[in-house]
Every structure is written in structure tokens, then in C-alpha cells.
Request: fold
Amino acid sequence: MLSSLKQDFFAQDAEIVARELLGKILVRKENGKEKRAKIVETEAYYGPEDPASRACKNGDLKNTMESNAGTILVYGVHNNWLINFVTGTKGKAEAVLIRALEPLNFNEKCSGPGLLTKALNINKNFHNKTIGNELYILDNPEKVEIIESFRIGIKKDLPKKLRFYIKDSKFVSRR
DNA sequence: CATATGATGGACT
DNA sequence: GTCCATCATATGG
Reply:
């Protein structure tokens, strides 16, 4: 039985959490049913420091990013939902975006931030909730090869590689 | 209420 | 690789 990640796991720098999250198992419980998926792609986001993050402008987002580690942040853009986990210590405005998952016990596309939220039935009502019974992450001893690169689809980015994904995973978004 | 915006996805060349 | 349909959100009046 794999252990569930505790809040202190998320209380690290967003970049660290983003790396560590790769290969771990995301669990979504809904009406007694359980969907599991391996995290294969993430991105680190910072608040005011990050030109890509809308937290600098959006008060609600910023507020959520500054709240406690392990808080779920859901943001809607285009016709999709994007899910993040708040990281760092309180007041730090950091988060990790989950970009892609590898479905384990179900069969829906998760190769993209919008798709995975659809597959797992995640929407705005998860916003500002905390990792818990309905949504949580299991540790995974499996070793993965991590590739880092610049983030995707963003207007202005920091000159840092903040996107992390598992080498050779066919489930990451293609861009 | 009206308007601007975009952390996308998918189809197509 | 490029192009575009689409729509929930934020913000201002």
C-alpha cells in the first residue's frame, strides 16, 4: 500500500515539488469510485515574480497561491480547467500545474491540462479545497527520468526551465 | 451588463 | 510546424 503524500511534501519550493511529483499517482475519488493516474508532466508557477502567472493580476488566484501548501487551485481558461497544487509556505504564492497524466485504471485522454481535468471531472468546485478524500496523491517508489524544458503556450516566461516531464512518456502533450 | 483575455485542443499542411 | 473555434473568468461601468 502506497502512502499518501502529506501537506509537508507540498511545503517545498514549487520547482522541487514539480520534479518530485513526476511518477507519483494522482487519485480521484468520486461516488465511491476511484480513478488513478500517473503524473507525467508538470510546471512550476510563481506568483508576482512570474510573468506567466496570472496571479500577479488576479487577486483570487494570488490569494489561493499564497494559502497553505496542498491547496487545490483550479483555474478556467479557454474552455478548459487547469489544476494546480499550491506549494511553498503560506504567503509565498507558488503552485505546480499538472499538465499531463497517464491513466492507470480508466481510459480517457489525459494528455493535456484541459483533458485531464475533464477525465477526472475536476472543475471550479475544487478550487480552494485541500488535498483530501476526493483528490489526493500517492507516493510512488518508481524511478523516472526527468526532462526539464521551458514552459508551454505562455506569452511571457521566466528565463528558467520550469516544465518537467517524464522521459519517453507518450502521455505528455505534444507541443 | 459588456468586453477583453488566454496556463488549450485539435485539425490541418 | 500553423491556424482557429470556443467559453469561463475577471474586471470595469
In short: Residues 43, 45, 52-54, 75, 77-80, 82, 84, 97, 99, 112-115, 151-155, 173 of chain A lie near DNA strand B (CB under 10 Å from a C1').
